[in-house]
Structures are given as C-alpha cells and as structure tokens.
Amino acid sequence: MIRNRHKLDEFYRKLDAEENLSHKEALAIYEMLHNEAVSLGAINSGNILDGLDVDLRIARAINRVGL
C-alpha cells in the first residue's frame, strides 16, 4: 500500500536516472520475464485476463475507502 506518493515518485525518478535503460534493453527484460511466466504456467494466451475482473473490483473498493 502506498502511504507517501511523493517518496514513491522520487524513488522512481532516481531509479530511472540510475538505471538508464534503453527501450531495447527494457523490452528484452520484459520478454524474458514474460517467457519465464509462460514456461512456469503462470500465464498463457488463454488465461492472461483471468481474474482481472476480481482485481478491478478490489482496486475500486480500496480506492473508494481511500486506503
């Protein structure tokens, strides 16, 4: 749960500045992570959206409460 949005934004700004990944490098990392998830059976083209409706309902409920 995010308690201090300013600190999180600052963290991401510093991370972006320090990592300095090119789009090509970032895409390669994403593809490797995606391939690993597929090989582990965590996702596939048939189940990629499974549970999304539940996640969205939970997110909406949390946002309404203001947590």
Describe the 3D structure.
With 67 residues, this protein is mostly helical. It has one domain. Helix content is 69%, strand content 0%. The radius of gyration is 16 Å and the shape is flat. It contains 3 helices and no strands. The termini are close together. The chain has helices at residues 5-19, 23-39, 52-65.
Short description:
The protein has helices spanning 5-19, 23-39, 52-65. By secondary structure, the chain is mostly helical.
Number of helical segments with 4 or more residues: 3
Query: N- to C-terminal separation?
Result: 8 Å
Q: Structural class per helix/strand content?
A: mainly alpha
Q: What number of domains?
A: 1
How much helix is in the residues? 55-70%
**Biggest pleated sheet:** none
The stretches of 5 or more residues where confidence is low (pLDDT under 50) are: none
Count every beta strand, where a strand is a DSSP E run of 2 or more residues: 0
Query: How large a portion of the residues is in β-strands, by DSSP E?
Result: under 5%
Write the element-wise H/E pattern from the N-terminal end onward: HHH
**Chain-averaged pLDDT:** 87
Using the alpha-carbon principal axes, give the shape: flat
